[in-house]
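User: My advisor asked me to double-check a structure prediction for Transcriptional regulator, ArsR family before group meeting. I don't want to rely on an old file, so could you generate it fresh from this sequence?
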Amino acid sequence: MTEERSATDIFRLLADDTRVDILRAVAVAQYELDEVGAGAAELTFSEIYEHVDVENTSKLSYHLGELTGTYLRKSDDGYSLSHAGERIVRFILSENYEQPESFGPEPIDGICVFCGADALEASLSHQFFRIDCTACEQQVTGHPITPAQIKTRDVDTLIQSVKLRTAENARQIRRGMCPECGSHLSADVIEVPESALPDADSFVVTSTCEECLREYNSPLTYSVVYHPASIAFHWDCGVDVTRRGIWEFHEYVYEGNWTSEQIASDPDEYEVVLRHGNDAVRLYLDSTATVIETERVRRESGEFQRS
Ligand SMILES: [Zn+2]
Ligand SMILES: [Zn+2]
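Assistant: Sure, here is a fresh prediction for Transcriptional regulator, ArsR family from the sequence you gave:
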């Protein structure tokens, strides 16, 4: 075990231009080495010295000593970035500490979950990609985005990137992994009687990361969208849910095609039904929102039957 160090000790190590330059130089030199699939490249003292503007070798030696153990790893073959070094140097290189460029308001596809109007607008609100309904003036959704995500895209590809990231994150969350820090997540289902659409879905799955304290909430219906049974069902109906944004599912809930209900208690069990035309998929979930059973059903003379 290493000795406990405070966050200020860790960050104080970086309050020096030369050390930030060293981390940057290690990343640049690894990039230029161009060794595909060789793992993290290790750089010798002299390779680093060539890349950093430092007075002499003893200064470099001192700074490398300070960084090693926290931001760098040292082996017989040389230096490479540690986990913290990787995270920090990517953050620095991508300039994700800068203020994001503004964008919007831009009209965007989808309907409002509250009023059903086709009047959504996307804009930047602090570090969030935010969608508002211009008809009822309510915020429909908000997703964290990074300054680099904005800087490297036009509006259309930015919207695509938000869809992709929210879908990827939703999958990780439902599989019990915090997308932010990688910790294990556990989930609870809670009833929200004042939900926007209590008849369609009044349950929320809430997952809190005990390590980084990020909290993730999702309507119960949306929590199963990326389950393989739902992806396959929608694919068969001609809809690729993996390419849709969360706000593009609002119409299904607003129109009552996606519903959830509690079907047992002690232990609690829930049923989510995702309908498309005369077909539907039913997913049964336990109290941790884990899907325990699925079935496809088809509407025959008004009633849904097992197909
Ligand atoms: Zn609205
Ligand atoms: Zn976390």
